[in-house]
């Protein structure tokens, strides 16, 4: 593909390998990878990019399988110019590239409770796009507004209602790139908030394969959720328990494994291909459907060509 665009101030790289940019360390290249210098650079690039060219915003690759054939079009990855964090009163403004854990820590230091972000892998842009949540709190509970660069290069600011949050999902415009978000949290004592996060980390480390190559929870819990993204308490089933009951804890396919420590974590044990990981996930879905009647839905995003 030949891109006819004005010069960028960021970095535009053809055929950029993506495996080293994802937590699972698999996948083919991006046809083009664009790392904008700032929001003006991003907006000008998208305005000049032909509408026929697909755009995929990529965060830190924490919940992503890039298929072995790579991604056609342009992958946009935000970096240093988009990772600022500022606290004013009960509100925290964070760039889309700021890590969730860093935002939680900075907020806690200022006495603002956004501790639910502490153990969520990834960055703020992805957290908004997926309505990330943990320990009963979700982005939908705390988001005040998000700033987007739309596919045509224009800027837009949306509030919580316009984000269209659901369980692990939102209704952001196609091709839009989240560049900043404003959250609001309850006040709290910094020391107590730090202790709360330490407890969350200890519980996570005791139950999840944090030292393995994984992408976090593989499948969504089969629960009912309201239009706000909050649980409606219809179900309390967990995906891991269905996988465990199907006898798939520790099950392997090539270099891919359903973790023996937490069976809802898909792990690259070393040398796995994206196809092996995705095929194992589909095998798990089929086996769980047979054994329980539940149809597990992917939480990990799968993109690109096989």
Strand numbers in spatial order across the main sheet: 6-7-13-11-12
Shape: globular
Tell me the major beta sheet: 5 strands, antiparallel
Mean pLDDT: 94
- The CATH architecture category of the largest domain equals 2-Layer Sandwich
Under CATH at level 1, the class of the largest domain stands as Alpha Beta
Number of strands: 19
Rounded to the nearest angstrom, the radius of gyration is 19 Å
* Class of secondary structure makeup: alpha+beta
Number of domains: 3
How would you spell out the order of helices and strands?
EEHEEEEEHEHEEHEEEEHEHEEEHE
The first-to-last residue Cα distance is 19 Å
Written overview of the protein:
With 306 residues, the chain is an alpha+beta fold. It has 3 domains: 11-80, Uridine Diphospho-n-acetylenolpyruvylglucosamine Reductase, domain 2 (2-Layer Sandwich); 81-192, Uridine Diphospho-n-acetylenolpyruvylglucosamine Reductase, domain 3 (2-Layer Sandwich), CATH 3.30.465; 215-225 and 235-303, Uridine Diphospho-n-acetylenolpyruvylglucosamine Reductase, domain 1 (Alpha-Beta Complex). The chain has 7 helices and 19 strands. Strands 6-7-13-11-12 form a 5-stranded antiparallel β-sheet. A 4-stranded mixed β-sheet has the order 1-2-5-3, with no helix packed on it. It has a 4-stranded antiparallel β-sheet with strand order 15-18-17-16, covered by helices on one side. The two termini are 19 Å apart.
